[in-house]
Amino acid sequence: MTTATTGSASVLTRLSTVLAPLAGLVLVLVLAAVTTPQMYTPDVVRIVLFQVGIIGIAALGQTLVLLTGGIDLSISGAMAMTSVVLAVTTGGSDGRLVAGVLLSLAAGLAVGLLNGGLVVLRGVPPFVATFASLVLVQGVVIAWTGGAPSGRIPAGLSWLGQGRVLGQVPVPVVVFALLALAALVVLERTTAGRRVYATGFNPDAARLSGVRPGLVVVGCYVASSLLGVVAGMVNASYIGYVDAALVRSLNLDSIAAAVIGGVALTGGRGRVGNTLLGTVMLAVLLTWLIQLGAGAGARLVVSGAVIVLAVFMQGRPVRIPRITAREKDTT
Amino acid sequence: MTSVAAPRGSRAPRLAAFSGLVRRGGAVWVIVLALVLALTFARGTGFWNSGNIAAVLAGAAVLGLVALGQHVVVLGGGIDLSVGSMVTLTSLLTAVLVDGYPIRTVPVIVAMVVLGAAMGLLNGSLVSVARLPPFIVTLGMLYLVSGVALTVSATPAGRVTAALTDFSRATLGPVPAPFLVLVAAVAAVWLLLARTPWGRHLYAVGGDQHAARAAGVRVRPVLLGAYVTSGVLAGLAGVLLAARSAIGSPTAGSGLELSAITAVVIGGTSLLGGRGSLLGTVGGVALLALITNAITLLQLPSTWTDLVRGLIIIAAVAVFVVRRPR
Amino acid sequence: MPETALGARGVTKSFPGVRALDDVTLACAPGRVHALLGENGAGKSTLVRILTGDESPDAGTVVVADRETRLGAPREALGLGIVPVYQELTVLPEMSVLDNVLLGQERSRRGLLDRGAQRELARAALARVSLEDLPLGTRTGELSLANQQLVEIARAIARRSSVLILDEPSAVLSGDKLQALHDVVRAIAAEGTAVVYITHLLEEVPALADDLTVLRDGKVVSSGPATDYTTDRIVREMVGRQVDQVFPDPAPPAGEVVLRVSDLVPVGSSAPPAHLEVRAGEIVGLAGLVGAGRSRFLRTLAGARGRSQGGVDVGGRRVRGSLTGAIAAGVALVPEERKRDGLVLDLTAAQNITLTDLRQVSSAGLVRTARENAAFDEERERLGIKASGPGQPTRQLSGGNQQKIAIAKWLRVSPRVLLLDEPTRGVDIGAKSEIYRIVRELAASGMAIVIASSELAEVIGLAHRVLVFRDGAVVGEVHRDPDSAERIMHLALGTAS
Amino acid sequence: GCSTEQEGSSSSSGSSAAEDCINADEAQAEYTASWTSVKEAFGLTDFEPVDETVCQVDGEQWKAEPKQGDSYRIAFAAQGPTNSWGVLSDEALKYHAKELGVDVLYAAANGDATTQVDNIQQLTSQDPDAMVVVPMGDGISGQVKAAVDQDIPVVLCSGLLPDSSGAVSTVTRQYDLLGSAYAEWIAEKLGGKGKVAILSGLAGVPTAEYQKAAAEKTFAKYPDIKIVTTQYTQWSPTVAKTVAQNLIASYPDLDAIWSDSGYGALGVVQAYQEAGKAVPPITGDSINEFIQATEGTDVQYALSTFPPEMSSTCLDTALDLLKGEPVLDKVYVDSPSFTDADGAQYARDDCDGGLLVPSSAPEDLLVDLKMCKAS
Ligand SMILES: Nc1ncnc2c1ncn2[C@@H]1O[C@H](COP(=O)(O)OP(=O)(O)OP(=O)(O)O)[C@@H](O)[C@H]1O
Ligand SMILES: Nc1ncnc2c1ncn2[C@@H]1O[C@H](COP(=O)(O)OP(=O)(O)OP(=O)(O)O)[C@@H](O)[C@H]1O
Ligand SMILES: [Mg+2]
Ligand SMILES: [Mg+2]
């Protein structure tokens, strides 16, 4: 009898540890279902999936950086830069697509190296380092294009943003799934992933164990920028033109997705699953808000409230700090 | 990053003196000084005429107040992304509520400060009582408060009184009145940080929450105080902004949060909390105000402004930021 | 005056997987020093946290001044005069000494800090721990670990206390500073305060304690007046068996010179260049007072900090002055601050062990869990690590077992030179003797070992010869003989004739 | 000053202003003409201009010699090169200034009203002869007033401010005109009955909100037209496309889309084409890309422009003031409007997709800015 109770109790606790992080997502899904019945039609689901793809790709890069205890505000800069580089270097012709892609990746590499270099070599706080490089990237793009970037993205790339797999699933979400799988394997299974976590948790101990935290951190910033470039390519090929409106915007979606999912800003804590969760939640939220058709004000209020509520519901143990728990909490 | 205290590998003495300067927030002033010298050299009369000085100082007032609040929150180990939206809401409400009635001016100003405090209290409660990460809490508040502002009015609305506009344009010598408000706020925050138990506790909580708690510090009220301070200063900034614009706008303060954080960090304050100097933050504000001024004074090509801004910020942080404790 | 200033009644506390305290009852009388002893992980610190309201017990109650009391936070305990100095440092490195001493007990007038009163109070408290010369404005992070610990003790002393709890205060102290600590503890007890004193240095017990309690596996196994206990008995109670405390003579080193240090000057040091040769199988001890430069020397050897001059050769080949260079050459350092530098506490035991050489347990960049677990089992076997399994977070292990992991991770790379910095700090006596055994065995297997320790008996007992450091310089070399202890102390203090 | 009265409420009856007004019939006619031309272009039956009194300003009052040197220095508080409109607005003025031999003191707001407040204060402190301001929002009114109070004539360009700003003249195309003309066209297309979606630009930004308000006012006249949803596109085709995909999913039977921008319209057209559905009648400003993308399709649209080149007219107005010549207090710029019936002719294959067509900017400037290829 006793064993039976304890047994079911432990199943319950185990269940709750699995379900707790999902609570926020469930909340959003239920809210969406109740208020907008059309939310679960195939068309809308496809839009959500597309959003998952486009937010998720950048969020993966962001996750890597967050795991090292950093943050990358320059991702949206890398995205905007990509569409400009693609358009300008190819002039819209498929023939030069490869060159355009390579150049975009090179530019992304440069941004990543700049971020990583500032953080590692100069010890600049990541928040400011990447914000400064965002301003710089925007500045370079504006100076280069005279402020009005424009041009065509080669049609040969349009499958990336507009295509569907099996006639239904948007290509971006497939790309995201593949990249997420790769990130999952890298983080959980490879030596590189182990080094990322070790560096994020304790760079000093990692360094003294022969890990080179500098290289790890730079690597993560580079990966983040390169994923930003991929996200930028998806975005550019989605619309097919350079979208000047995106050049100046600071897009916090990738950070929000990772952090809402439970990746800590202090480094080391977080998995690809967290990011996936946060990404889906954000994608549902953004689509739901459009479907809701509420005014701009109400929409912002709802998204702000839902983000805080969802994180609150994620069943973070309301724990009072202990002297033993020396690690700084996310607070 | 663990914060257990231990001597680190000692630096070369030359660097140590320099890092002392950085620590006390003096370093950013080196760049400010260099920029002032460069501007004097390039545009002597244009820069030093009282109108331009007034323009620089007045431009610094709103950002300065917001950065001051940010400074306090960051010292406590947090971050406040919602300051820009709080400025937006309070400035919009100032104009909408005053709406040209002189009798309403004072009550509305008081109400805005209270509103700022209330929003700060909400931030602070979510962070310290519900123990949610400040980044998420204040990001959510950023959306929420901007949404409220847009709901109040989607178009520019309301009108402040002549007294308020006059105040925003009044000067004492070359010093604009809004700047004097900033000076007073700096003095008040300095007093709070350097001369009250709460100030000590804030440094302690920012440096190591667990250690502070072990020493008997009440963490919650300290954090609440920090966010409330930030909210109050944002409320004041909102009133100043409304006075300057004479009218309320639902987007007035957008983007201020990033400028404020940048100013704080350029000034040598650690985003990890527990270390920072007010002098540095004020220097950071001065630097950002001067960059804007310099770009116009030097008549740089408009397409180069962001490039220049980015380069100066990178130069400032790369050269002058204290290395992260290892 | 109450009979029991502070006590516990039937206190039980469990963490996932461990019962840290099991029905613990304890009573500390006013005016007496009560030593709390036990192996690593016996539950001493957990008990302290419960007694100070930092943690709440699963069952049982805390007794304050003869009354059962519920404590919600350290602040409440402080309000009742229960003042703790926790095992981990809680000074804030970025704050000044003054602010650290007065943290949580600032004196203010009309809301503003009363700076005169503050200074006076801090001065008085610092004077009691022999830090009267310390400028109050110094940034605490700039102080040596020992002085930081004293600042923390000064903070506790500055409070009016009926109970003072010191959790391993002596771990980072030596010489005069340790003496000053003992003096102040006695003085405070004489004033009527109950003192709870936790230590792994058993020679402190007869010198300080009036009563003692021994914990083993979360249970009180013995309690009574200190005079009833000999060191042997204490050890027996703690470990539950006899521990071999004598250091047999080490086997003479047979091998050729493995490590050769010539003209070495660490960056930032103004001391004269250091020389050292260590043979395979040889153990060289480094002695000196706290801050004498031993750690700096070891860190420089390991490439963890730069050298401004000189060179290090291993097996006749010059070693590059970087961490990776040193590791590649077979030099491994087990650093003194285990929790900060030695381990990634949030990774599992197995993950920490394999961090130094991930290639061993991976193929094509993929970590093979089976191989990783095998590596863990191997080290568990070799060092006698007690952990629930390879997947246990290192944070949850007891201090001694953490230290074994910190050593084990370096054994994975089969180093030729092993540098151990304070390998037994904060480690209980049972684990200590195991670590001694391990060090001996490693030397016997042909490793060259350099070991820095503040415990004189340990250096002398383990090493073939001892280098003595003072003010960053090697001031002498002492070989194993009956009065080496005295000679080392004289050299370290600069009183050698 | 603790009055319970609302300030300025008694004096703003407009009677005093009306007395001063030298009614320029010619100008009034020009204003009406700008409405009639749209009416004709869109084939509207019922489209009357909103009431507006245009007066002549006495230029004598502002007549002045150059304060420094022998050429005028005109301060230009510009939007900044945040998009192709901003670039052309900035550059057209500078180009014209060069033609006239006038110095320009330039400051970019990068689309932000708060920045512009600082800019205007700073420009004022440099004591220019006159100032041209592309207003980023009503929030700059106070600072404009301060400039005028310092005897610097201010000409507002491509935007409006409340009368309290004291600006001497306003040179612009009317937002009301565009917003209501698009709405009226849709209403006629639908025969006064149907479901309409509104796609506005940026929430809270006056240029977007005023046009939207005008549209809503117009639609309100038709009880059978239902505005099913209002969305914001941030003037980004990417955002607009996502929004449009959502519209297709939730309102499959949408009859028309009112959009305030060509960028928004571009995204909408793509979304519908990809979904294999007919694009509902749509409006927006006429960017090259949109016309090219709809060429050869049966997409029905009504386009007009808010020409950036009007900034050169703004400069002329400022200089007229300085020369003491009479100017109008409101100069309403006209520009081509057209529908899908004759849209194709405006496409310019030699020019960039972002160009607002037809452009009256000098050809060599367009080439210089790499917006068009040299022919
Ligand atoms: N970050 C630092 N800043 C200034 N001085 C430092 C720093 N780190 C170490 N020192 C100084 O360098 C010297 C050597 O320190 P080290 O830690 O090597 O001493 P030690 O003999 O190993 O002492 P311990 O017994 O604590 O290990 C000391 O005088 C110490 O005060
Ligand atoms: N927060 C915690 N979570 C899980 N287990 C814990 C926690 N704190 C302590 N423990 C476990 O409780 C037991 C007692 O630990 P405690 O720190 O009290 O030992 P101790 O006697 O102070 O040892 P040491 O001499 O090493 O300081 C150990 O097994 C430890 O791993
Ligand atoms: Mg302990
Ligand atoms: Mg040492």
UniProtKB/TrEMBL annotation, chain A:
CDD domains with a match to the protein in the record: TM_PBP1_transp_AraH_like
Keyword Membrane: yes
Primary location class: membrane
Gene Ontology CC annotations of this record: plasma membrane
Entry GO MF terms: transmembrane transporter activity
Residue ranges of coiled coil: none
Membrane-spanning intervals of the chain: 12-35, 47-66, 73-91, 97-120, 127-145, 165-187, 215-239, 245-265, 272-290, 296-313
Topological type in the membrane: Multi-pass membrane protein
Protein name: Autoinducer 2 import system permease protein LsrD
Protein's organism: Phycicoccus endophyticus
Species classification: Bacteria, Bacillati, Actinomycetota, Actinomycetes, Micrococcales
TrEMBL record, chain B:
Membrane disposition: Multi-pass membrane protein
Keyword Transmembrane: yes
Keyword Membrane in record: yes
InterPro entries: ABC_transp_permease
GO cellular component terms given for this protein: plasma membrane
Keywords: Cell membrane, Membrane, Transmembrane, Transmembrane helix
Regions that span the bilayer: 21-41, 53-74, 81-98, 104-123, 135-155, 175-193, 222-243, 255-272, 279-298, 304-322
Entry superkingdom: Bacteria
Localization in the cell: Cell membrane
Molecular-function annotations in GO: transmembrane transporter activity
Protein name according to UniProt: ABC transporter permease
Origin species: Phycicoccus endophyticus
Automatic annotation (TrEMBL), chain C:
Lineage top rank: taxon: Bacteria
Organism taxonomic ancestry: Bacteria, Bacillati, Actinomycetota, Actinomycetes, Micrococcales
PROSITE patterns linked to this entry: ABC_TRANSPORTER_1, ABC_TRANSPORTER_2
Domain ABC transporter: start-end pairs: 6-242, 259-496
A molecular function (GO) term: ATP binding
Pfam families hit by this protein: ABC_tran
Alphabetical UniProt keywords: ATP-binding, Nucleotide-binding, Repeat, Transport
Organism: Phycicoccus endophyticus
UniProt cross-references to Gene3D superfamilies, sorted A to Z: P-loop containing nucleotide triphosphate hydrolases
Protein name according to UniProt: Sugar ABC transporter ATP-binding protein
